[in-house]
Specification:
The structure is a single chain. With about 600 residues, the protein is of the alpha/beta class. The chain is built from 23 helices and 13 strands. β12 and β13 (about 550-555) form a beta hairpin. α8 (about 250-260) packs antiparallel against α16 (about 390-410). The longest helix has about 40 residues, at about 5-45.
């Protein structure tokens, strides 16, 4: 029976592979036999050095070295070459395994992601040129430290090319817990910041607060506002939230912070919420105009019939506002009581004397002034618990006041702050609910104010700012960083579509009577499907920068950088001090005997 062309072709392929394998093994084996045989004959004095004849050395060594003994030839031309081949094979296998492990540790490179050329504006040369143009103080400098050119986001995956956002960018980072948002983004950014730093957080021990406190205290003064005693620190500052409330707009913004801290975005439009916020803004305005402490507002809320706020508003030319307040006070009792009770609930944190002490004048305690802070190299750490209600309203109000003071200073300085101010709004959806933050994103970067809002999920932002607000902030952010742990399928699919598709080569083989044929075609495939985004490994992040392809980054945690041991020791000391202060408060008598307190 005649052999089919395909069977004959397969036989030829098999014979070719066998021949190639035999040559790959036989040639070095024969060469080793020739070399080893010559060395054996030379050392034993049983023969001359034979010219290169590897085949004879392997198959008929007795013809080349007739005077050598059988045992000598067996060891020299058989055993030694085989052992050498095995040793080489073992070494090659070890090197290959190490290479694969190292490659695995560097994470598999994803095809279709941005190359260095695609994100060139975020790399060293371009980011330095941008820094010179944005910061007059660097224009004529011969050498600029990388930290002065922009904020490090990480390395382009698989390379040592640093990727930085410039000092006119504004960023949103969506990273799940323990995905590197603090260790790889917040802490390194704070440590490298060239100007004033603002940080909001809901943690102290073992977090950005303890990691950065000592390092930032060597740069400038560290101000800590901790109304709920997360760090159990002594009160070394107070801040007057009514400083910016001497106008109706300013008072309205302050009241809005109390509203946002108490009510989700989808509930802020109802009658009671808006009415309660309006009463707060009117009373805040009266207290600010009469230079009273903010706690007086709680006294006025307790007694709606008190006419002092009405008189203050009229005396300072706010007759229309006084009329609105009077209309509410003299309205139907059930409506008035409901409005006032709503306002009392929003501002209830001011009833706590420990919290109120941070926002009322304190004897022998320095006042924190945002207008002075923004021209310094100081740091402001604002701490509040999740769901802190009115306490988190004060945190948001202070952060907002600082950013507004920075904007005013930038306008006086010609348009931009130099050095720029960094605002790390960590846990922003929990402790820093600034209602119009999405709107601020449109101009903060152009003023040299660099906000990085860190969220655990996209939905978390939607809950605080609503769908339209979160979409606005996402669109306004010139840099978006997406870390591991994205479990929202809709958001993961949205990201997958934004990353886009790439061409994938598909090879198909068919067999017929005339032989085997191979065809190659191209098809479109998602660069990163939603399931791959969900499974993004820890230590990796996606970087979406305006006008550029999406890049995969290798994050740079602070503990893997030079000087990490010193920082870790300082953080451990600060964390231990927090623990000691907490124990001292729980058991005051122990503080008398514990030297750590």
């Amino acid at each position: 029976m005649p052999t089919s062309p395909s069977t004959s072709s397969d036989g030829y392929d098999m014979a070719l592979k066998i021949g190639g394998a035999a040559l790959a093994i036989g040639f070095p084996l024969a060469s080793f036999a020739w070399l080893s045989g010559n060395l054996a004959a030379w050392t034993t004095g049983t023969g001359p050095w034979v010219p290169y004849r590897p085949a004879d050395a392997l198959l008929h060594p007795e013809h080349l070295w007739p005077s050598a003994g059988e045992t000598t030839l067996l060891v020299a031309t058989r055993i030694v070459p085989v052992l050498l081949m095995l040793l080489i094979a073992a070494g090659a296998a070890t090197i290959w395994v190490r290479y694969k492990n190292r490659a695995g540790g560097r994470k598999k490179k994803v095809k279709g992601m941005a190359s260095a050329r695609d994100i060139e504006p975020l790399l060293a040369k371009a980011i330095e040129a941008k820094a010179r143009s944005l910061r007059p103080s660097l224009k004529d400098a011969k050498h600029i430290e990388p930290r002065d050119t922009g904020i490090l986001l990480g390395n382009l995956q698989g390379t040592k090319r640093e990727v930085r956002m410039g000092f006119e960018d504004v960023a949103v980072a969506i990273m799940a817990p323990r995905s590197g948002k603090t260790t790889s983004l917040a802490i390194p950014s704070i440590l490298a910041a060239p100007g004033p730093v603002l940080l909001t957080s809901n943690k102290a021990a073992g977090d950005a607060y303890t990691a950065c406190y000592d390092a930032r205290s060597r740069v400038g003064r560290v101000w800590s506002m901790d109304p709920q005693q997360i760090a159990h620190a002594e009160r070394t500052m107070w801040w007057n939230p009514l400083t910016d409330a001497r106008t109706l707009d300013g008072a309205g913004r302050l009241a809005g912070h109390f509203l946002a801290a108490s009510v989700d975005a989808n509930q802020q439009g109802d009658f009671w919420s808006k009415a309660g916020s309006n009463i707060l803004s009117q009373l805040f305005l009266a207290a600010a105009l009469d230079e009273r402490p903010i706690t007086d507002v709680m006294r006025w809320l307790a007694f709606p019939s008190d006419r002092r706020p009405l008189d203050i508003l009229r005396d300072h030319g706010f007759a229309s506002v006084a009329s609105q307040l009077k209309g509410t006070v003299e309205g139907p009792p059930e409506t008035r009581d409901g409005i006032y009770e709503t306002a009392r609930q929003y501002a209830s944190a001011l009833l706590n004397s420990e919290i109120a002490a941070w926002v009322t004048p304190q004897k022998d305690v320095p006042e924190f002034r945002p207008s002075h802070f923004v021209t310094s190299s100081d740091s402001l750490f604002l701490l509040s618990k999740d769901g802190g209600g009115g306490a988190s309203a004060l945190i948001a109000a202070c952060a907002d006041s600082v950013m507004r003071a920075a904007t005013a200073q930038a306008e006086r300085a010609g348009g931009r702050l130099d050095p720029p101010m960094l605002a790390i709004l960590d846990e922003a959806a929990n402790v820093c609910k600034i209602s119009d933050l999405p709107d601020l994103y449109s101009h903060l970067g152009s003023r040299g104010i660099i906000p990085i809002t860190i969220l655990q999920s996209y939905r978390q932002g939607q809950k605080v700012w609503g769908d339209a607000g979160m979409d606005a902030m996402w669109s306004a952010a010139t840099v978006k960083v997406i870390g591991s742990g994205i479990d929202d399928p809709d958001f993961a699919d949205k990201l997958s579509r934004m990353i886009g598709d790439h061409d994938v080569e598909t090879t198909s083989t068919s067999v017929s009577d005339s032989g085997k044929s191979t065809s190659i075609s191209m098809r479109q495939e998602r660069i990163l499907p939603a399931d791959a985004i969900r499974a993004l490994p820890k230590g990796s992040a996606l970087c979406l920068a305006t006008g550029m392809r999406v890049a995969m980054l290798d994050l740079r945690p602070w503990y893997a950088e030079p000087g990490a041991d010193e920082l870790a020791a300082a953080s451990a000391r600060a964390s231990k001090a927090i623990t000691a202060r907490a124990l001292a408060k729980a058991n005051p008598r122990q503080a008398d005997y514990d030297p750590a307190v």
